[in-house]
Design a protein that fits this description.
This protein is of the alpha+beta class and about 180 residues long. It is about 50% helix and about 15% strand. It has a 4-stranded antiparallel sheet with strand order 1-2-3-4. The radius of gyration is 46 Å and the shape is elongated.
């Protein structure tokens, strides 16, 4: 068997090749984030729209007098989630206050008597609908015969006075001519 001898020049060449290959791999890993897929860029008429795929943040980038500048687009989702959180906390506090004010043996927030619901479009017999509407029914009493007679006498007097006034005005105008 023949033994292989390594020469120092060959070892140095091999080390140089490995160093160049390792440096290329390291530089590829340290390249811009768009190459690794963190940002997705889309062109718009005003510039570029940039989406950060890790955080979901959207930015608009445009050329300004000093170069390119990117500004974060307001996130409605974050605002909505903040409002939902605020309302949830307020709801929790109101439930606690309601439970603190409840009488013993009573469920908090429960109404003693449930009001009947009536729906005119709901199928059912007219009697069922009528009985369901009965508590909400408004009745206006009709006038009696005496009330009608008084109203008629009043209107008759008003009419006679109006006719008399018209006659006087007609007479005054015909006398002046």
């Amino acid at each position: 068997m023949r033994r292989m001898q390594y020469r120092p020049a060959g070892v140095l060449a091999l080390a140089a090749v490995l160093a160049v290959a390792g440096g290329a791999a390291a530089s590829a890993q340290q390249g811009p984030d768009t190459e690794k897929g963190r940002y997705t860029l889309s062109t718009t008429p005003d510039g570029v729209l940039r989406l950060d795929t890790r955080t979901g943040q959207v930015s608009t980038c445009a050329r300004r007098s000093g170069g390119w500048a990117c500004y974060a687009v307001p996130d409605e989702r974050a605002a909505l989630e903040a409002e939902i959180g605020r309302i949830s906390e307020e709801n929790r506090q109101l439930k606690q206050a309601l439970a603190a004010n409840a009488r013993p043996g009573e469920l908090p927030g429960k109404i003693e008597d449930v009001l009947p619901k009536a729906d005119s479009l709901k199928p059912g017999s007219p009697d069922e609908q009528k009985s369901a509407r009965a508590p909400n029914r408004l009745e206006i009493p009709l006038p009696s015969d005496a009330d009608v007679e008084r109203a008629m006498n009043f209107l008759e007097k008003v009419w006679r006075r109006l006719v008399e006034m018209a006659g006087r005005v007609h007479k005054d105008v015909s006398d002046r001519i």
